[in-house]
Amino acid sequence: MRLQSPVLFIIFDRPELTQRVFEAIREAQPARLYVAADGPRPSRPGEDEICRRTRMIIERIDWPCEVNRLYHDRNLGCGPAVNGAITWFFEHEPEGIILEDDCLPSRSFWTFCQVMLDRYRSDDRIGSISGDFFFPRVLRHERPYIFSKYVQIWGWATWRRVWQQYDYHLTGSEEEWAAIIRHHNPLDLEFRYWWEVFRCMKRGLINTWDFQLMFSCWKHHQVHVAPTRNLVENLGYGNDATHTIFESPIADLRAEEIDAELPRLPLEINPELELGTFFYRFLDSLHNTWILHQAIDVSEKLSGVRWELERVRKLVPAGVA
Questions:
Q1: Within a domain: residue 119?
Q2: Residue 69 lies in a domain
Q3: pLDDT in tens, 171-203
Q4: Of the candidates 98, 142, 224, 315, which lies 20 to 30 Å from 32 by C-alpha distance?
Q5: Considering only CA atoms, which of 282, 1, 269 is closest in space to residue 145?
Q6: Pick from 150, 312, 128: which is nearest to 215 by CA?
Q7: pLDDT per residue over 201-218, tens digit each?
Q8: 3-state helix, strand, coil in the chain (%, to 5)
Q9: What's the number of domains the chain is made of?
Q10: Do the domain assignments include residue 144?
């Protein structure tokens, strides 16, 4: 059976990965496919040719399909490019499935997204559907899916109604956002982590778009559906990635299948699973230098150094080298 939901496929400059994910899309055969591609970076010689080769893969569509393209001539960067692509997608569609070029889905991913898109279409409490479950296979859950406060976007789906409330710039006062983040993260460690992420994004130190989606959904008290089997393999860990350039235990997670039976479950959040997701998924970022470099404000770091130097100067007697 052909996939009824439209698909947005976000590509850039990795033709080999794009080809693998395109084959999975070909197998699902969506009736409508939207393809968005950021432009080459002038600082990368030869990237224009790589981007051209990547885009040519889309010309190999061999099933009945309405194709829409949004190809940029110049590079916008990860945050603006993906934000713009999803906005463009929902200008034309009321709901849909979104894949980036390094997210390889299993067959069950399509079914899971389709069922949940239909089921929660008019339920304003639900913000998105994810194909991701980051716990090791030995930590199974008896239910086929759960609800979570966390957005996971390595293969996901949502509705126009959610994207219309998306706030890329996180407008509003810091006091308002602190209250929102604290409400959803009562543990001090969680609050401080997400507050630092928020501050870094406001300062332009993190070039992304997905954390803004999570904060926007927190603002509107929405939760997210996630399977308890990982349905998407992230192919993007490596030196050519934008963010996932570090080693991680979740880099080895493979895409699995899930039973087609998806009963209706009460909308409940398991605090233990949420805490496990925080430590296993997000605090895992602290093992790599990227998030550390992004999270440290250089001016604050230098202020600390100056304070320490002044303290030492007062302690050391004059004339002592």
A1: no
A2: yes
A3: 999 999 999 999 999 999 899 999 999 998 998
A4: 224
A5: 269
A6: 150
A7: 998 888 899 999 999 999
A8: 45, 15, 40
A9: 1
A10: no
